[in-house]
Amino acid sequence: MTRISRFEEIEAWQTARELTRKVYETTNEGQFARDFGLKDQMRRASVSIMSNIAQGFESRTQTLFLDYLGRAKASAGELRAQLYVAQDVGYLDQSLYEQMHELVDKCSRQLSKFMTYLVSQKAKNV
After folding, report:
1. Which of 43, 71, 92, 108 has its CB 3.0 to 4.6 Å from that of 76, i.e. a possible disulfide?
2. Using CA atoms, how far apart are residues 120 and 17, in angstroms rounded to an integer?
3. Domains and CATH numbers, the chain
4. What pLDDT, in 10s, does the model give residues 10-35?
């Protein structure tokens, strides 16, 4: 595996960035743009995914990094739940919901795999 030297190289961060762009784009339109509570919460959750990956990468220890990745994964779960709300109230049609859900689910899976990899590397170094 190639050594990662910048958080921007982490696939989960790249997916989170794409997801955040989509969240901002989607929440800027129609009724969604006027639902300040849900719009802001979804934006914060998506930004939190990106930020926690970056902050964890720049932290001092692998233990802290894993903690931040766990927080990013939790924010992905939060955003997934909010997508259900957005769909249920009619802000997202089925196609857009599925597209955004797939992105957040992909990011969550990437985070899980990355965390598993880091834990396995940590165990090898003990």
Report:
1. 108
2. 26
3. 11-124 (1.20.1440.60)
4. 999 999 999 999 999 999 999 999 99
